[in-house]
Amino acid sequence: RHRPPPWGRAARSLPGLPPGPSRAFSNSKVLVELDESSGVATMKFKSPPVNSLSLEFLTEFCISLEKLENDRACRGVIFTSAVPKIFSSGLDIMEMCGKSTEHYAEFWRAVQEMWLRLYGSNMVTVAAINGSSPAGGCLVALTCDYRIMVENPKFSIGLNEAQLGIVAPFWFKDTFVNVVGHRVAERSLQLGSLHPAPEALKFGLVDELVPEEKLQEKAATVMAQWLALPDHARQLTKSMMRKAVLDRLVAHREEDIQNFISFISKESIQKSLRMYMEMLKKKKG
Amino acid sequence: RHRPPPWGRAARSLPGLPPGPSRAFSNSKVLVELDESSGVATMKFKSPPVNSLSLEFLTEFCISLEKLENDRACRGVIFTSAVPKIFSSGLDIMEMCGKSTEHYAEFWRAVQEMWLRLYGSNMVTVAAINGSSPAGGCLVALTCDYRIMVENPKFSIGLNEAQLGIVAPFWFKDTFVNVVGHRVAERSLQLGSLHPAPEALKFGLVDELVPEEKLQEKAATVMAQWLALPDHARQLTKSMMRKAVLDRLVAHREEDIQNFISFISKESIQKSLRMYMEMLKKKKG
Amino acid sequence: RHRPPPWGRAARSLPGLPPGPSRAFSNSKVLVELDESSGVATMKFKSPPVNSLSLEFLTEFCISLEKLENDRACRGVIFTSAVPKIFSSGLDIMEMCGKSTEHYAEFWRAVQEMWLRLYGSNMVTVAAINGSSPAGGCLVALTCDYRIMVENPKFSIGLNEAQLGIVAPFWFKDTFVNVVGHRVAERSLQLGSLHPAPEALKFGLVDELVPEEKLQEKAATVMAQWLALPDHARQLTKSMMRKAVLDRLVAHREEDIQNFISFISKESIQKSLRMYMEMLKKKKG
Questions:
Q1: Which of A60, A147, A213, C102 would suit a FRET pair with A85, their CA atoms being 20 to 30 Å apart?
Q2: Is pLDDT of A198 > 70?
Q3: ipTM
Q4: B238: chain C residues, CB-CB within 8 Å
């Protein structure tokens, strides 16, 4: 029953791009495997130690996602981590510390691009969250259609930007509100909360918890359930639900980049980030 | 305590229309009984086999609702089914298959009209859901002020349009989001889910479950509770809550009709609907 | 650990206003105590018999709040009642009955001002709800960052305006929807519900319940948790979450005052309010 049904994937390839054969491709940061029989790809984050979203990571992520988006054989993607105990630690602080204005602009545009492509993807997207997922890592999960998390209470998830003295941008917030509602989002964002898996389930931040050894199987089952629907109607429905929030960033994209640059360039913010990095180093040492 | 309180129903009759005496009126598709002592009407859907929302049904529904709306003696309406096991199966697929553009336009305008009148009704509206209620049937329930469903898990409710390869229009979506929130709506609409009664309760899609034999009694009790409030303040409050969503359809009504026509006229959609009807016939056979 | 962390309170004093020393100040309606070591003020409502929000109360409330807002030593405020069994009974009906148009305008502007300052406050605001909290009293609680209520089921909370034949203004509604979501707000506002403490918890109208003797301790603990975050990031986050709703009133402030005046001046409304006051007097008598 995992075979694509007859309504599967109308021609979505770009003109001139032949339908892709089954394949696995790997960059240095992400590993992609596509199972042609089910139409499901798995994208594994493999950027140790913590899968931080560096400019390089984001670039490879977007290229890989676009390849899949344009591949007729692919109808859904499962995102998971190849690094133990961490899904993704979020935006790479190194990219936001002591760099040039041009670098900040390039980095922020890449973060936006990742979100725009993933939140607006025509494919079914499932996050198989096999580790902690703070800040930008949480955003990646929130941006998917469905979230399954390992039931280990040591793994936590949340938009904890406020803990670092920074502010989640409005489109992180919009995505969060769409998932957990206004009240939970307001409290969680102000407190910069990292929710242990059971609490994340309670708030609807993730859709279900499973034992670690069942995660991939569960993700495949959920994916099959979503792929049982005709692609076209499902895609139009998804687009209808997300359009307002996607359009808001598209309309304010350059302004959002300028806001990021002026905020991140402040000496007080740079100091906070350096202190935070020091703290992380000490924790490890 | 079921007598209308002094604040009940300010003059809402149209000029020239005398205040109505107690009455029952029946068209071929809906049966209306008004209990003058309580000010409560019951509208029963009696269009076997499945109370589908045909053009004829919708026309009679709107005429009946308008009569009640203009009747000083009526302050609230309970909607229920006279057909066993089904509340309403939703929009009549026959009206959307192999018909002329003019017919599609007339039909869609009637669907809009039903929703506009019901969602914007000054009366208290209670859905007593005594059977399954997919698609447009679910919309009728969502559009009421309160939903009571028979606790039979064989009865299900949901906006399952995606299952048929079609897309719920934006105002179905808006109504759904207002009831269950964005996250539940997004998932349920993409999956075209039909929720068994207990799950519908859990998601807030219905407000409570009762045994079938208690349904009418419960509906009357709930109605009395809502009618204990002064009409005027309750009506203004209801209007304040629903205005944004009502205004959106009013502002885009013709565009929405054109969208429906161009979508439904597609050969691929016509084919999906024919396949779905075949499936329904086989099920019965 | 209650000492302000290094990031505590950037210079927010108005120019020329020296940083305030620790102090307690009392007007006739509110009593304010500031604990400099923790940076936390407690504002106690002491306007017996029911802490109704009279023009005088609102004026003192706003002046006190502004003093704290401009006091570097203060980072958070706990609101509670010095009157047994009641947090606040809401807007003072005496101010809305048989007064001049000018008085209605002045009163309504004061209500708006209270909400604008409290909902937009840079400080952490915690409601320690030690009694019933109907209508405007509920609004004060909803406007805080966090709500802790005494677990006594005899204490209830809600926007019960509809019970009095009046309508909660759109910004009461917006604040309510931001806390409990659209569905709960729609039902509760139409029914003018007063929710006993356990039900209020279930609906998310309050965040937790505690025994009366633990209330102040719990409020202090929660406050310390919120103050553990850097002020600047928390304030920007709070502002991002609330800006849309705050801006709506700012944009329609004069219109909202005119609406209030024309509504409250109606003879039917005046009659309803007089009847309600008679009922209250009889209850006491």
A1: A60
A2: yes
A3: 0.91
A4: 186, 190
Chain B residues near residue C168 by CB distance under 8 angstroms = 237
- Choosing from B60, B160, B189, B205, the catalytic residue is B160
Chain A touched by C238 (CB under 8 Å): yes
Is the omega angle on the peptide bond into residue C49 within 30 degrees of 0, that is, cis?
Answer: yes
Specify whether the CB–CB gap between B64 and B31 falls below 8 A: no
Name residues whose C-beta falls within 8 Å of residue A275's C-beta, 6 or more positions apart in sequence.
Answer: none
pLDDT of residue C182: 98
List for chain A the helix, strand, coil content (%; round to 5).
50, 20, 30
Phi, psi of C190 (to 5 degrees): -65, -40
Tens-digit pLDDT profile for residues C169-190: 999 999 999 999 999 999 999 9
CA B84/CA B44 separation, integer angstroms: 12
Give pLDDT tens digits for A92-114: 999 999 999 999 999 999 999 99
Q: How many contacts, defined by CB atoms under 8 Å, are there between A and B?
A: 60
Indicate yes or no: CB of A233 within 8 angstroms of CB of B165: yes
Kindly list the residues from chain A whose CB atom is less than 8 angstroms away from the CB atom of residue B161: 233, 237
The C residues from 152 to 191 touching A (CB cutoff 8 Å) are: 177-181
What sign has the CA pseudo-torsion B206, C182, C124, A135? Answer: positive
Where residue C2 falls among pLDDT bands split at 50, 70, 90? Answer: very low
Over the stretch A51-69, which tens digit does the pLDDT of each residue have?
999 999 999 999 999 999 9
What domains can you pick out in chain A, each with its CATH number?
Answer: 22-213+233-284 (3.90.226.10)
- Give the integer Cα–Cα distance in Å for B109 and B116: 10
| B232 contacts C190? CB cut-off 8 A | no
Residues whose CB is less than 8 angstroms from the CB of residue A31 and which lie 6 or more positions away in sequence, other chains included: A24, A43, A44, A46, A82
- Among A39, A76, A90, A136, which one carries the catalytic annotation? A136
Q: Which of A237, A239, A245, A247 to mutate: most B Cβ within 10 Å? A: A237
B91 noted as active-site residue:
yes
Please give the Cα distance from C32 to B249 (Å, whole number): 50
**CB-facing half-sphere around the CA of B284: CA atoms within 13 A:** 8
In the block, tokens 């979508």 appear at: B263
CB B171 within 8 A of CB B248: yes
**pLDDT tens across the length of chain B (285 residues):** 344 454 444 434 344 444 444 578 777 999 999 999 999 999 999 999 999 999 999 999 999 999 999 999 999 999 999 999 999 999 999 999 999 999 999 999 999 999 999 999 999 999 999 999 999 999 999 999 999 999 999 999 999 999 988 999 999 999 999 999 999 999 999 999 999 999 999 999 999 999 999 999 999 999 999 999 999 999 999 999 999 999 999 999 999 999 999 999 999 999 988 988 888 888 766
Contacting partners of chain A (3+ CB pairs under 8 A): B, C
| H or E, element range at C59 | helix C55-69
Which of the residues C237, C238, C239, C243 would you substitute to probe the A interface, choosing the one with the greatest number of A C-beta atoms within 10 Å? Answer: C237
Q: What is the pLDDT, as a whole number, of residue A25?
A: 78
> Quick one: average pLDDT of A154-161?
98
Q: Which helix (H) or strand (E) holds A80?
A: strand A76-81
- The span from the CA of C104 to the CA of C101, in Å, is 5
Question: Between chains, do C185 and B230 touch, taking CB under 8 Å as contact?
Answer: no
Q: What is the pTM of this model?
A: 0.92
Q: Dihedral angle at the C-alpha atoms of A214, A215, A218, A220, nearest 10 degrees?
A: -120
Contacts of B253 (CB under 8 A, 6+ apart): B109, B112
Interface residue A268 vs chain C (CB under 8 A): yes
Kindly list the residues from chain A whose CB atom is less than 8 angstroms away from the CB atom of residue C229: 162-163, 190-192
